[in-house]
Amino acid sequence: MIGRLPILDIAPTVFFGGEFVGVKAIPNESLTVSATIIREGHESLSAEAILFDPKGKESARFAMRGVWGAPDRFEIEVKATATGLWHFSIEARSGDLRSLSERYPILVERERALVGAWYEFFPRSEGAIRTKDGKIISGTFKTASARLDAVAAMGFDVLYIPPIHPIGHSHRKGKNNSLTATVDDPGVPWGIGNSDGGHDAINPELGTLEDFKDFVSKAKSLGIEVALDLALQASPDHPWVKTHEEFFTKRSDGSIAYAENPPKRYQDIYPINFDNAFPALIAEVKRIVKFWISQGISIFRVDNPHTKPVHFWQELIAQVNKEFPEVLFLSEAFTRPAMMHALGKAGFQQSYTYFTWRVTKNELIDYGREVAHQTSHFFRPNFWVNTPDILPFHLQSGERNIFAIRALLASTISPSWGMYAGYELFEHQPLAQGKEEYLDSEKYEIKIRDWSDASKKGATLAPYITRLNEIRRRHQTLNRLRNLHFHPSDSDSIIAYSKRDGDDLVFVVVNLDPKNPAECTIHWEMWVLGFEAESFEVIDQLDQSRHTFSPHTRLRLDPNLIHPKSAGYNVGRILTLKDSSILARSKK
Fold first, then answer.
1. Is the predicted pLDDT of residue 254 greater than 90, yes or no?
2. Is 303 a known active-site residue?
3. Superfamily for the 112-477 domain
């Protein structure tokens, strides 16, 4: 029933599975609460948004304001101050009349749920060596530990590693996904399980469990969280094949069905059947997750969750987070939007996105608006510039500026972004023309990279990546999502946007053309920036150059001209106000 003063179309709310589930937020993140409030006649109305803390106690009230151009619509920004399940309601008043809406949940999770700079490497490649006779000796957790310092130096705070478990021998894949493996082929890490164990075991070639714990410990000492892969599938040699036959689908002849994604066949992988023994399966997966939590893992990157039932993830994540609310799950689901969004609503704290394929100005603006303003209540994006599975076409030229452009966009549009090792070395050879896959993919072989030599020769994007992550750490506004606003410019090559959080305002301008200079007028929408001025001075955080802007700023970006302090690239600018007090004065 509606109240005496109808309070309608309340937002943000997320209705999923027959109930309202928590809107996603982190501590002190702005969340715009809005509603349509009406009454008969012409008497004035007022409204307040009320926040209730995880104990159900009223925490704060916020006077709502009318929305310009939208009669009867009220809104206000609210902030929850700590983690936990909060609620909000809206109270409307008119004279002696009073109506109070129901309470709607806000799930406030730790900051890493929204914010992070992710890096991915294969431990077996880090520290690997090639002997004189050409044989490759796998890297280990001990040798991979030496790479952690460089990862931290670039400013990454999450390290994702592919599966570290024993790899099956039956139907093991060879180089470039060959169906015939040699004795020296190390196998695909996602083909999990052999006589050495399954999902709760360490591949002996990488070391011991103690070596892994030391690896995680060193990462933490450097400010890096290790994200472990959770891939719910098994090789034909996995212990589950004997101990849990009910986890798999059997053909009429009694054999277990391998994975297929026509026309591809994955004879080295048995998919899990989630309908055969659901209670036993969820108990086993929870046991595995808790085991790795006990080893120091607090983030799981889930492989292909869209090929498993959504309700499985909802139940698993809810059970794990009830006991370990700090644990996060990243959904690796490049699939249809409805499924990606459902997984977010089911509990995944973060998700891979379509950013990898959004290239043009219009594509970037449309997608940026979608993730920042249309889906951010249930879908947190992580912008990856590449993955071991995906070498996007725009990188295949090897043009260094495009690598810088994509990193600049990813790290400033989204609070979380990621890159897979080799990106900084401009690796770009495709498997074949028309394929978005790497030649000599690291999924099927150990890759030896000479990081030191690349650094000496200046053949690395690492200094630029380091600068981007430094700027992100200095400016909290870049670590927020819902504050993204695109500003008009009269060039298809130049994209301009801003982010403001309190008195922290950042302008970003990027030339999307890696080869040619572009010039245009950017029309800064001052009502979004929150101040009025005929001109204002800004400082480029990439090269410390100073510029004078106006509401209509003429700007030229030439990717062929390199400023000596710009870490080697002139593809865009990240600017802040020289005098930020202009923002404080504007409030008065």
1. no
2. yes
3. Glycosidases (3.20.20.80)
